[in-house]
Amino acid sequence: MGGEPVIGRFVVLEGGDGCGKSTQVGLLGDRLRGHGFGVVETREPGGTTLGDAIRALLLDGDSVAPVAEALLMAADRAQHVGEMVRPALESGAWVVADRYVPSSLVYQGLVRGLGIDEVERVNAWATGGLEPDLVVVLDVDDVVAEGRRAPQADRMEREGDGFHAEVRAAYRRLAAERGWRVVDGTGAVDVVSDAVFAVVAPLLGASGATDV
Fold first, then answer.
1. Alpha helix locations (H) across the chain?
2. By C-alpha distance, which of 120, 40, 26 is closest to 80?
3. What is the domain range of residue 90?
4. Can you say whether the dihedral through the CA atoms of 169, 172, 174, 177 is positive or negative?
5. CATH assignment at residue 176
6. 94 within a domain of the structure (yes/no)
7. Gap between the Cα atoms of 56 and 71, Å rounded
8. 3-state secondary structure of 15
9. Which terminal CB of the chain, N or C, has fewer other CB atoms within 10 Å?
10. Please, what sign has the CA dihedral across residues 115, 182, 17, 11?
11. Helix (H) or strand (E) holding 53
């Protein structure tokens, strides 16, 4: 290895509630392991003990002020990056995450109306400026997404149709502006998995396989 540190890759799957992120994170992790890479799968909010407590505050309550929502997400992210994401990357593993900073830009920055610049600034501080190598947005129409949401919906999932339509539009807007890759998430699970992997595949040659 020539004494150089091995740095893994950081891939984030994004999209509105019901788009299939959690399923695709697991499938992508399996495919990467099949190519010989060490992989850490994780999610936000959550992924750490503190993060799970914050997740409960964010998703199980009935009312959270937008600024409080943004700051709780940033606190979760600070712990997540410091405890899990950065150490995994520095060990040479790939990290595949269900949500990261793009979620805050969409949900709090645009849909909640707090402003992109403000939300981006606090998250840059929280993460030490750690950027993903790739952001993949799973785009699913509102009818399909509604049918996929869990019967026991959390606070975000209980938002009205107008909210979820705004979320989808915000993801599309920022994907166009920031170069996030958009994958149609409405098809069969294996079809979507193939499409996600096709987007991720160009990163494979730039990262050596490692065990974790």
1. 21-34, 49-60, 66-80, 86-90, 101-104, 116-127, 142-148, 161-178, 189-200
2. 40
3. 10-206
4. negative
5. 3.40.50.300
6. yes
7. 14
8. coil
9. N
10. negative
11. helix 49-60
For residues 138-166, one letter each, b for 16 or more C-beta atoms within 10 angstroms of the residue's C-beta and e for the rest, the string is bbbeeeebeeebeeeebebbebeeebbeb
In the chain the first and final C-alpha atoms are separated, in Å, by 16
Q: Please state whether 2 falls in left (phi above 0), alpha (psi between -120 and 50) or beta.
A: left
Question: At a CB cut-off of 8 Å and minimum separation 6, what does 27 contact?
Answer: 189, 193, 196
Q: Give the closest residue to 138 by CA, choosing from 55, 93, 199, 89.
A: 199
- DSSP label at residue 48: S
pLDDT band per the 50, 70, 90 thresholds, residue 2 = very low
Whats the size of the chain, residue-wise?
212
| Nearest alpha-carbon partner for 148 in 183, 186, 111 | 186
What's the structural domain count of the chain? 1
**Which residue matches tokens 């914050």?**
54
Each residue's pLDDT tens digit, 147-176: 565 555 555 665 666 888 999 999 999 999
